[in-house]
Amino acid sequence: QVQLQESGPGLVKPSQTLSLTCTVSGGSITTSYYAWSWIRQPPGKGLEWMGVIAYDGSTYYSPSLKSRTSISRDTSKNQFSLQLSSVTPEDTAVYYCARVAVVAATVDYWGQGTQVTVSS
Asked: How many CB atoms lie within 10 A of CB 52?
């Protein structure tokens, strides 16, 4: 059973960088044909895919967030991380990490989500 757990500050000030880490257990982030994604849900809105880091370390980002988003990984800790720069209150959301089965293009495991509020 794969488990994912998000961690990071729940409050970030405008113009700062939001940093979250997802710790994975029960499976390796380097296992072939899986990718590891960040997805968010602003209050009252739908899910928004932010980006992904694949098993080989390659990254792909949402075009609308690409200029502000970076996803990296630490294979020794089996973790992957999100950095979102120059945040505004519109970046307030519940942030989820998730595993993507690449061939099926589906999310098969989710973290529980973490609330991040952008406010001064």
From this structure: 21
State the first-to-last Cα distance of the chain, in angstroms, to the nearest integer.
39
Quick count: other Cβ atoms within 10 Å of Cβ 11? 11
CA 37 and chain centroid, separation: 5
Task: Say what the pLDDT of residue 24 is.
Answer: 98
Q: What is the pLDDT of residue 36?
A: 98
User: In whole numbers, what is the pLDDT of the chain averaged over residues?
Assistant: 97
Instruction: Provide the pLDDT confidence category of residue 48 given band limits of 50, 70 and 90.
Output: very high
**Contact assessment for residue 4 and residue 110, using Cβ atoms and an 8 Å cutoff:** yes
Half-sphere exposure of 55 (CA within 13 A, CB side): 12
89 close to 31: Cβ distance less than 8 angstroms: no
